[in-house]
From TrEMBL, chains A, B:
Presence of the UniProt keyword Ribosomal protein in the record: no
Keywords: DNA-binding, Transcription, Transcription regulation
Lineage: Bacteria, Pseudomonadati, Pseudomonadota, Betaproteobacteria, Burkholderiales
Organism: Candidimonas nitroreducens
Name of this protein: Transcriptional regulator
An example Gene Ontology CC term for this record: cytosol
SMART domains: HTH_ASNC
Any one Gene Ontology BP term: response to amino acid
A Pfam family that the UniProt record links to this protein: HTH_24
Top-level taxonomic group: Bacteria
Gene3D superfamilies: 3.30.70.920, Winged helix-like DNA-binding domain superfamily/Winged helix DNA-binding domain (1.10.10.10)
GO molecular function, a single term: sequence-specific DNA binding
Amino acid sequence: MDKTDKKLLDILQNDATLSVGAMAEAVHLSTTACWKRIQNLEERGVIRKRVALLDPAQLKLGMTVFVTVKTNHHDLQWLQAFSQVVRDMPEVVEFYRMSGEVDYLLRIVVPDIQAYDQVYKRLIKDTRLSDVSSSFAMEELKNTTALPLDFV
Amino acid sequence: MDKTDKKLLDILQNDATLSVGAMAEAVHLSTTACWKRIQNLEERGVIRKRVALLDPAQLKLGMTVFVTVKTNHHDLQWLQAFSQVVRDMPEVVEFYRMSGEVDYLLRIVVPDIQAYDQVYKRLIKDTRLSDVSSSFAMEELKNTTALPLDFV
DNA sequence: TTTGAAAGTTCTACGTA
DNA sequence: TACGTAGAACTTTCAAA
């Protein structure tokens, strides 16, 4: 993973529509050499997948809610069941097990409060949680899929 | 935005490597008809961009930190300055203004605690915050860019 | 590393309902 | 306005110089 690979990743994670030829030019390589590097990054799994990012506003998904969860259950079996239920909810776009005060943190994307309430009810019904707290995002100031490559 | 468009969006936000021909088959359309729909979704901005998603683990970005921020400054000028500083930090991948107890929530991606401490210092130095609290993710159970299309 | 060519894909032109 | 056929232009992919 040299400087050229890093440059290619930087390009790809910001815009994956460029042709191999255009990227080759940007990193001063022949098309084939560049193509082989990208191929290699894909095989090694450094590039996980290529996706289209949609505009939440246009899909009427204007509401982002962060939900923190505390639980009394700390056995593996409960965790696995809980994890499965939450992962299967398409409204939950992020889901972490946390250190500290809170046990789990979820980011939920929905059209409005009513839809959120449905998701909330499903959550507490299906998993028996001791303490659930919701915080609403008023404004999304930044949200990027581009990872910082400064450390690489 | 009919059922076919929705299906195309669903495909595209999960895998944008399929050819137009393959997608056309999936939605029972000719290649051209399908191509025009995708073109249209792009022009309307429903499809915002196409990107490659990278594997954080392989880039040694194994640490995710959620940072909550409270501030005494509530004027627009301070907000804009603060917002600019934070948005320009590549380690900050998400950044929201919140309702309730906390004023701002940041998701930060770094290789390790040392790197996080650097980011933390930069944050408090550049913006003069009254209360900053960090929570560490122990495990990423779900993280998807695919928005729920059930409401569309 | 580069050339080059086969296979595949995107995109345009034009016609139909 | 939405779809289809056909083909030109471009891109990807890979073998061989």
